[in-house]
Each structure stands twice: as C-alpha cells, then as structure tokens.
Specification:
Blueprint: H1 12-23, E1 27-43, E2 51-58, E3 60-65, E4 68-75, E5 78-82, E6 89-91, E7 104-109, E8 118-127, H2 129-136, E9 143-146, H3 154-167, H4 174-195, H5 203-207, H6 210-221, H7 229-235, H8 240-251, H9 255-272, H10 278-284, H11 290-301, H12 305-310, H13 314-318
Helix pairs in contact: 2-9, 3-4, 6-7, 7-8, 9-11, 10-11
Length: 319
C-alpha cells in the first residue's frame, strides 16, 4: 500500500508525546505456549478477546484466515500479530483447512535449533479498551513483522534470541521472564508501524499528518479544554470541513469521538492512579457535570467510573 500524500515523519514534539503515551500504557503480556512442532500440526489461538501474537523462532509455517483464500508463509524471525483477535490457523500445511477453531499437534520436540520442526512462542497482549481503540482500532486483521528480512529490526532480532533462549530453559522465573520480554513486543510493533510506509489509521496515523498532529497535541496537552470541531480545526490551520475529512482519513474516526476516547484514557489514569474523585476527573476532562462524564465513561469503558474504581481498575474490566 502507498502512503497518503500528507503522511510525514514525526516531528520532535509528536515523537515526545507518543513516547510519553506509550510509556504510560497499561497492559499485560502473557506467553501461553512455547514449543517445537513436527510433522502435521495446526493451531488456532483466537478467542481470548486480546491482541494475539505468534513468533516463529525457527522453521516455517503457514497462516490461514477465513477471510483470505491465499495463505501467508511465515518463516524464521517472523512475528504475526492479530490486533482484533481474528480467527486464524497457523500450521504446517499450505492447504486451506477444512475448519477453524481446531487444534492438531502430532509431535513435539524440545526447543533446539538442532531439532526438526517449527519453534513457536505464542502469547497475547491485554490492553485496556480506550488505548486499544486509539492504537489499533483501524489496523488490519493481521500484521507480519519480519525481523530477519528487515535490516532495520536488529533490536527485534536480539529480543527474539532472548525469548528463544529463555523459552528453552526449565529454570526458576523463566515464565515470568518470558512475559516481561514479551511486554517489549508491543513497543516494537508500534515502532515498526510508525517507520513502515503504510497507512495506519488511528493515533499513529494522526501523528503522521503534521496538521492533524497539531490538533492531537493540543488535546494531549489540555484534554479538559472546551474543544469543538471549529477550534480544533483552527489548531490545524484548516477549514472546518477539510479538517473533519482529513482527521477521519488519518484516524479512522471523527474528531469528537477521538476527543472522547482521549479524555477517557486520561480519566482512567486519574481514577486508577491518582485516586481523584469522579467530579474532579469530570472537570479535568472538560465535563460540566459528573453525570455527563459518567455517561461518556461508561459508553467507552463498559462500566461507570464508580464501578470501575470499585472493581479495581481496567485489568479487572477486561476479564
């Protein structure tokens, strides 16, 4: 795919803001499978409701999706990510499977480069609703990051080497170490998306359009301001209609919907980490009443702010 004409490299201010956002993301990575598969095999790990990933440590395999008749070949060093938990089968056969949702493992051997078969590490990233929609809401069903084929991904290759080494150990803390190493994958995925010449609607797309980025940085700096379509367009030095169209192209959603998601991203942090009152958070987010804020919060998060705090935050909402 080709880039939109207005796609530009991140400005220093945009890069700093994106780094700050990524640093504050609340998420959890978990590796649930590590093994080396031989002969005929097939896996479908969808259904968790989370962002799924597979790492091909060595060997090769095939990725099948119900919506795609042509399989994708995966090889040594590839990371395949499913931002929306799409149904899929990753397996040894190029032939389209008869059904999805199946598991078929005939033979496993210890993780070792000297052994036959395909070595896999599989896991998921549990990310809260608002951040997931902002970062990944308009991404395709799957993304492949080729750590071996891409000369710019030396850091990812180093991470994969560490993951493979730790996955082959039966040592104290190995599972926890794998999870923490997998945490870093999210940030490498974001970096890869930013640096690749791909249209990426959502937060990353907004940062790639210099004029739309002005509006996003204004919201980021002052989420509680009484933002409207008109004054957001002014920050982007665009007319109201052009701004609305460009914003939707870059972000995959209207400006006011983006503003609401952004405010809820901050609201979650203030409720969970700062222990601020609902009324205080409502005012910080630019709402004139706690009732209006609570309604918006529930629409985005699935529960009201009081219930959110009672059950212990976003991680428990996702369960």
């Amino acid at each position: 795919m080709s880039l939109p004409q207005n796609k530009q490299a991140l400005t220093p201010d945009a890069k700093q803001a994106l780094n700050e956002i990524l640093r504050r993301i609340n998420f959890r990575a978990e590796v649930f499978y590590r093994g080396q598969l031989c002969d005929s095999w097939a896996l479908d790990t969808s259904g968790t409701g989370n962002v799924n990933f597979h790492i091909v440590c060595h060997g090769n395999c095939w990725l099948h999706l119900p919506t795609c008749k042509i399989p994708t070949r995966l090889q040594n060093g590839d990371i395949v990510v499913f931002p929306h938990d799409a149904a899929h089968i990753i397996g040894s056969s190029e032939a389209q499977p008869d059904a999805f949702g199946m598991q078929n493992i005939t033979r496993q051997v210890p993780l070792d480069h000297a052994n036959p078969g395909t070595a896999l590490i599989c896991g998921f990233l549990e990310i809260d609703h608002s951040v997931r929609r902002l970062l990944m809401g308009a991404l395709p069903e799957f993304i492949v990051i080729g750590a071996q084929s891409d000369t710019h991904n030396s850091a990812v290759r180093t991470l994969l080497d560490l993951l493979f080494t730790e996955a082959g150990l039966d040592a104290v803390g190995a599972t926890a170490i794998l999870d923490r190493l997998a945490d870093a994958l999210l940030f490498y995925i974001v970096r890869d998306l930013v640096e690749k010449d791909l249209p990426i609607p959502g937060l990353l797309g907004a940062f790639g359009d210099a004029q739309i980025c002005n509006a996003v940085l204004a919201i980021h700096t002052n989420p509680g301001w009484h933002w409207t379509l008109d004054n957001l367009a002014e920050t982007a030095y665009l007319s109201r209609s052009v701004f609305a169209e460009r914003f939707f192209q870059a972000c995959g959603m209207p400006p006011i919907e983006f503003l609401t998601l952004w405010r809820m991203y901050f609201a979650r942090r203030w409720l969970e980490q700062d222990k601020a009152s609902v009324m205080d958070v409502a005012e910080r987010c630019g709402y004139e009443s706690a009732a209006a804020f609570s309604k918006a919060f529930k629409r985005v998060m699935g529960v009201g702010p009081g219930q959110f705090r009672k059950i212990g935050g976003m991680r428990n909402v996702n369960r």
